[in-house]
Design brief:
globular; mainly beta; four-stranded antiparallel β-sheet
């Protein structure tokens, strides 16, 4: 399965984004950090990352030091066949991970 993570940074100042790929169990998490320039869209391909848990379900958590929009596009393949079996896309759900008083 190939997955592209597409963070969008709509603000006028740079935003540091950290992606965490979490599979659980004995599989160690994979972390990727990028600084997004103002107005930038960045493509991060999981096929180019070391340690991505292919073949098992995993969760992608995206956090940043400012607001950004996260989108994920995926393609599913069958081993031994060159064509794409399925495609899908998800838009991230914004959440405040800290509590305010």
């Amino acid at each position: 399965m190939g997955t592209d993570l597409l963070p969008l940074q709509p603000r006028a100042t740079p935003v540091k984004v950290k992606l965490s790929l979490l599979a659980g169990g004995d599989i160690p998490p994979v972390y990727v950090e990028r600084t997004l320039a103002p107005g930038a869209v960045t493509r991060i391909r999981t096929t180019e990352m070391d340690g991505v848990p292919f073949g098992v379900p995993f969760v992608v958590q995206a956090t940043g030091d400012g607001p950004f929009v996260a989108q994920m596009c995926g393609r599913a393949f069958t081993r031994g066949l060159a064509h794409v079996r399925a495609m899908y896309s998800f838009i991230g759900i914004p959440m405040a991970l800290t509590q305010s008083e």
